[in-house]
């Protein structure tokens, strides 16, 4: 099991104790270890983690000298972890420890590449989460689910269990929170089996025990808006990677519809002006008169038609490039799997 940690000194020892107490109950089924990655914390997280590990031979602590982000912390944890399964937990225990057993049970039942704890599938629940963050998370996962062709309900969640061989063969690049959608994206490209279990997300706000922790919390609040913007960008970009053609196809259809509407009025004005001309008059005169009477319809109709064609063409190219990329990634992953074996 792995647990990334950043400035968690106020909750670290208590929550590590709860995790260990639960893992002891699984010892008749699994031989376990816990890898804590201190991701460049500015408080006493690293010291307290090492102190806790001194009394527990199954706990190891890995340190980053500076904060490198959730993605890099997980990549470090994956490399450091041993065993057949790798469970990722959040040290704030917003998902209670009993999720670990249920994730492993589902993994054993299905032999999947990964199992995700999903609060957004039937049977899942969310509690005590601020309404803005809850709304953003719900819509982010709905958007990514649409981009992933509704194959999963939760794509941003971190609490999961991975088949170790599967996660080790992935060439992961994300350094931030977008590592979670990246893993699912690459799993879908490899046509790996992904399962979900109902998750119960319950936020527990820690109480700052020291002035330093309190100052850290205030700093987090001041930067929350920037984190929201950054996370929104990550979600949009992840959605683009899942299905880039949609980002071009839908706007192109809108442009085609607007072009059809505008060009209908272009034709209407031309016919009206032609009927007003004397018999045997040049039709181009009617077009010129129609342009003089309503030039905006010509501009809008022409511009939207060109944009629609360009966006549609980009959609075709993006679908082709995605197909090539998936094939190359599949071949590269298969080669990596052979080398590991």
From TrEMBL:
InterPro entries: Glyco_trans_2-like (IPR001173), Glycosyltransferase_2 (IPR050256), Nucleotide-diphossugar_trans (IPR029044). The chain crosses the membrane at residues 235-258, 298-317. Pfam families: Glycos_transf_2. It comes from the Bacteria. Keywords: Membrane, Transmembrane, Transmembrane helix. Residues 2-154 form the Glycosyltransferase 2-like domain. Gene3D superfamilies: Spore Coat Polysaccharide Biosynthesis Protein SpsA, Chain A. This is Glycosyltransferase family 2 protein. It comes from Romeriopsis navalis LEGE 11480.
């Amino acid at each position: 099991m792995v647990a990334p940690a950043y400035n968690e000194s106020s909750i670290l020892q208590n929550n590590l104790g709860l995790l260990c107490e639960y893992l002891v109950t699984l010892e008749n089924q699994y031989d376990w270890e816990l890898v804590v990655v201190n991701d460049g914390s500015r408080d006493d997280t690293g010291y307290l983690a090492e102190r806790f590990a001194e009394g527990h031979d199954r706990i190891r602590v890995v340190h980053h000298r500076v904060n490198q982000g959730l993605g890099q912390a997980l990549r470090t944890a994956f490399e450091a972890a041993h065993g057949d399964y790798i469970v990722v937990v959040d040290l704030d225990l917003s998902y209670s420890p009993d999720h670990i057993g249920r994730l492993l049970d589902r993994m054993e039942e299905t032999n999947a590449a990964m199992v995700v704890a999903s609060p957004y599938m039937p049977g899942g629940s969310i509690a005590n989460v601020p309404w803005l963050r809850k709304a953003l998370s719900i819509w982010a996962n709905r958007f990514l689910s649409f981009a992933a062709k509704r194959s999963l309900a939760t794509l941003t969640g971190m609490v999961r269990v991975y088949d170790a061989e599967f996660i080790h063969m992935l060439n992961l690049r994300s350094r931030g929170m977008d590592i979670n959608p990246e893993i699912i994206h690459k799993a879908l490209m490899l046509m790996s089996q992904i399962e979900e279990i109902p998750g119960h997300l319950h936020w527990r706000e820690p109480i700052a025990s020291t002035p330093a922790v309190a100052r850290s919390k205030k700093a987090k609040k001041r930067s929350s808006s920037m984190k929201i913007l950054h996370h929104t960008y990550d979600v949009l970009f992840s959605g683009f990677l899942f299905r880039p053609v949609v980002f071009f196809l839908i706007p192109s259809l809108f442009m085609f519809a607007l072009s059809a509407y505008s060009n209908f009025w272009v034709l209407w004005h031309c016919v009206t002006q032609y009927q007003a001309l004397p018999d045997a008059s040049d039709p181009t005169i009617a077009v010129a008169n129609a342009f003089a009477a309503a030039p905006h319809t010509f501009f809008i109709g022409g511009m939207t038609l060109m944009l629609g064609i360009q966006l549609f063409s980009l959609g075709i190219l993006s679908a082709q490039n995605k197909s090539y990329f998936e094939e190359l990634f599949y071949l590269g992953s298969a080669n990596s799997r052979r080398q590991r074996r």
